[in-house]
Specification:
Blueprint: E1 6-7, H1 9-27, H2 29-48, H3 50-58, E2 69-75, H4 78-90, E3 94-100, E4 108-114, H5 118-123, E5 127-133, H6 141-152, H7 159-171, E6 174-175, H8 176-189, H9 200-209, H10 211-217, E7 226-229, H11 234-240, E8 264-269, E9 273-279, E10 285-291, E11 294-300, H12 306-322, H13 332-342, H14 350-355, E12 361-365, H15 376-381, E13 385-389, H16 397-407, H17 422-429, H18 436-461
Parallel strand pairs: 2-5, 7-11
Antiparallel strand pairs: 1-6, 2-7, 3-4, 4-5, 8-11, 9-10, 12-13
Helix pairs in contact: 1-2, 1-8, 2-11, 7-8, 9-10, 12-13
The structure holds 2-oxoadipic acid and nickel (II) ion.
Length: about 450
């Protein structure tokens, strides 16, 4: 049968992820340094903690750790977003969650394209945080129109990429050869362009409206602006960065260091100022610069329930009320202390996190134990069922905003009218986004069901 020769979307995603990583390593060498540091620290962390290694092995995530990363891009028009949705679908990546960045003074809204479901995540968890520029938030009507026209005149996908997406959709997949050229063609969309498609004058005006607007509008395509490997010890990597010639942000974003990691913690190096050229009135190229690309690392923890997330939000807000982290890092240690203090209210052992229903867990039967009940809590008490935290695979609105801000300079905090635009975003996208809480709850429930199914006959027989 023909369909059996199609490459699995997971396989195409894995090769795309690896192609993106090599391209970015070449484009931004500091990212390569970051990758080696992360690999070194992950190896050490696993060697020092056989228990962690064993749990990761058991939950089948050990192999993926060093392969794991996310990236971020920003597009300019609904049509670009809609096409990206189709591109990512070929690689088994679907929009999860809605992030309204206007709340943080950044004129975009976003989703994360990522694999959904355990099997796909295990093969390759590559995700791409994808933002759509809110042109409607440019106040100056003339500038808004110029931006719109500039964006409408560009085509961010190669003709071959579009043909291959259509082919994949029509046939239900891509064969190996097509899949390989698909990856190559899609890579073109995310490549860096050092020649702007606007004059330096227009660039300046866009930049004055918001530097992110300039970043999205001024170039031929939505260059990948960072890639982020996953580390098992973010504090260790952060500490090693300066000695390796990378200067990290002063504080790690997100929750403080804890025994039981929650959601995610991220840190990055500042975006690089890079040479680009602009075409001037005489039609000649003139030198200028643009700041957009950086490198980031993250440590992932447990996915929180709405209750856990509310507590997280509350405690983060509380620590920021005590000390607002200054962008120059001058009050970093005060902020870290305030964060620790505030988060004392968040339980820091898995049993309590579970019984307080703050996080999602995956339940698995323990083979060889005698089973006397078919109630989950009894089974756990008897040692017949064990539980592991479900890893948070998404992003944080506040964290995302922090990353945007910290990499774009300190002067940029602006107010944009926040409006609930999820429906509009989904209309542009062409599909609704998946609700991440619902998704984690389903994973947890499915694991409970599977345990009970598997243990029930034993319970009855004994
Ligand atoms: C995306 C920022 C979001 C993260 O890790 O929170 C993000 C961007 O700067 O375009 O990647
Ligand atoms: Ni990121």
């Amino acid at each position: 049968m023909k369909s059996s020769t199609f490459l699995a979307p997971d396989t195409i995603r894995a090769s795309f992820s690896s192609a993106m990583s090599s391209m970015y390593r070449t484009e931004v060498p500091a990212y390569g340094t970051l990758l080696s540091l992360v690999a070194e620290v992950n190896t050490k962390t696993l060697a020092a903690s056989p228990e962690m290694a064993q749990r990761l092995e058991q939950t089948d995530t050990l192999d993926r750790i060093s392969e794991e990363r996310h990236g971020a891009i920003r597009v300019g028009t609904p049509a670009e977003l809609a096409m990206l949705r189709r591109v990512f679908a070929v690689m088994g990546m679907h929009p999860v969650g809605y992030y309204d960045l206007t709340e943080a003074g950044v004129p975009v809204h976003s989703t994360a394209f990522r694999p959904v479901g355990d099997a796909a995540l295990k093969i390759n968890p590559f995700r791409v945080f994808t933002s759509l520029l809110r042109l409607d938030l440019i106040e100056d009507a003339i500038l808004r129109e110029e931006a719109r026209m500039t964006l409408n005149a560009r085509q961010i996908f190669t003709a071959k990429a579009i043909t291959l997406v259509e082919k994949a959709e029509a046939n239900g997949g891509l064969e190996a050869e097509d899949a390989a050229s698909f990856v190559e063609e899609i890579l073109e969309t995310f490549r860096w362009h050092d020649r702007a498609s606007v004059s330096s004058h227009l660039y300046g005006r866009l930049h004055d409206a918001h530097r992110l607007i300039a970043d999205v509008v001024s170039f031929k395509g939505p260059h990948i602006n960072h890639l982020t490997p996953r580390t098992l010890d973010i504090d260790a990597v952060q500490a090693l960065m300066p000695a390796n010639g990378i200067s990290p942000k002063a504080v790690i974003e997100g929750p403080p260091t804890r025994e039981c990691p929650i959601l995610l913690r991220q840190t990055s190096f500042k975006a690089l100022e890079e040479n680009v050229s602009f075409i001037n009135a005489e039609g000649n190229w003139e030198q200028g610069s643009h700041t957009a690309r950086f490198g980031e690392i993250e440590q992932r923890g447990i996915a929180l329930t709405p209750k856990g997330r509310a507590l997280y939000d509350q405690l983060l807000a509380k620590s920021r009320e005590i000390v607002r982290p200054a962008a120059d890092g001058s009050n970093a240690s005060d902020y870290i202390a305030a964060l620790h203090e505030a988060f004392k209210e968040f339980p820091d052992n898995w049993d309590t996190i579970r019984s307080a229903k703050l996080g999602y867990f995956r339940y698995t039967p323990v083979s060889g134990t005698k089973v006397r009940s078919n109630e989950l809590e009894d089974l756990i008490r008897e040692g017949a069922v064990q539980f592991d935290p479900i890893v948070y695979e998404d992003f944080l609105p506040v964290s995302a905003a922090g990353i945007f801000q910290s990499n774009l300079g300190d002067t940029d905090v602006q107010k944009f009218a926040a409006s609930p635009s999820q429906q509009e975003f989904e209309a542009h996208l062409g599909v609704p986004v998946l609700d991440e809480f619902e998704h984690y709850a389903n994973l947890e429930n499915a694991s409970i069901e599977a345990c009970l199914q598997q243990l029930r006959p034993v319970a009855l027989a004994s």
